[in-house]
Amino acid sequence: MRCFLAIELNSDLKENLENLKKQFDLKGIKTVEKDNLHITVKFLGDVDDKKLEEILNSDLKIKKVISEIKGVGTFPNEEYIRVIWIGTTKLEETLKNIDEKLFKLGFKKEKSYDPHITLGRVKFIENNSKETLKKVIEKNKHVDFGKIEINSVSLMKSTLTKEGPVYETIKKWE
After folding, report:
1. Which CATH architecture has domain 2-173?
2. Can you tell me which residues form the catalytic site (predicted)?
3. Residue stretches of the chain with pLDDT short of 70
4. 116 noted as active-site residue
């Protein structure tokens, strides 16, 4: 089963981000479906039944955190844009603690923790659209999208389809 750990977002924030997504309606950019917006904690990849059972039996509860959702950025950088994201605050320690628990189950440790919400992926960008994209990113670089209370982590199943990934919550640690 292909899966990952995520922090699910409330509907108000998702609705707020829908308005932002409209600004990235450029050829070559695939924005994330509203129902699929989340903060990625850790991508686990294909997990067999034994490993899945170990994850499900783990204590992945987290302490409550109030995170600010603000600023638009890109991976890997602004000259070569592949991912458009929205930043989050105060989650590095939470992600590090979960990563430590998963390391004990045999998962590779992350090199760094960059908590974010993926807004879209850039498949290609035409030259005349590149400047437009950079302007939209610059315009939203410091925009505050609000605060959210985070008190749970979810194990998500990801099924890839022609229309895009379909996510299903397997377990939620609250």
Report:
1. Alpha-Beta Complex (3.90)
2. 38 (proton donor), 116 (proton acceptor)
3. none
4. yes
